[in-house]
Amino acid sequence: MIYRATFQTKSKQLGSALSKDLRKKYGKRSVRAIEGDSVTILRGEFKGVEGKISKVSTQKNSVAIEGVKKEKTKGDKFDVYIHTSNLVVTSLSTDDKWRVSKLEGKNHSKQPKETKVAEKTEKKEDEN
Fold first, then answer.
1. CA 84 to CA 75: how far, in whole Å?
2. What phi and psi values does residue 83 have, to the nearest 5 degrees?
3. Which residue of 50, 62, 100, 117 is 20 to 30 Å from 85, comparing CA positions?
4. What is the spatial distance between Cα 87 and Cα 92, in angstroms, rounded to a whole number?
């Protein structure tokens, strides 16, 4: 049933381990790999190579990394897709504020609601 999995399920399968310093900072062992994250390759032909994720393929459950390419016999170069289980995330892309808040354990969606309720009660008190 892997081939008929929903997009959310496939997305969850793109998890990659965090480096030791990021584990201590966020208190999590793994995170979904997205474009812009810096990673180190742990296994395979490109072991030890560091780079940023340039493309994410949910169909292949893998990512393409900048600087990791192979050459065809005619001289053309193409991206090598590496499975996310063979990577360690060394630094996170902070473009997505929701992702950062989830990692830090903050819930921004609940905070504005509380302030609105507090403002309404203050207005009612002012009217009385």
1. 28
2. -65, 140
3. 100
4. 13
Q: State CA 82 to chain mean position distance.
A: 15
* Residue type (1 letter), 107: N
Rounded Cα–Cα distance for residues 40 and 49 (Å): 6
pLDDT in tens, 88-106: 999 998 888 898 888 888 7
Are the C-beta atoms of residues 33 and 89 closer than 8 Å to each other?
yes
Tokens standing for residue 47: 């072991």
Type and span of the H or E element at 119: helix 111-127
The pLDDT value recorded for residue 104 is: 86
In the block, tokens 């790999």 appear at: 33
Residue whose structure tokens are 């399920």 = 9
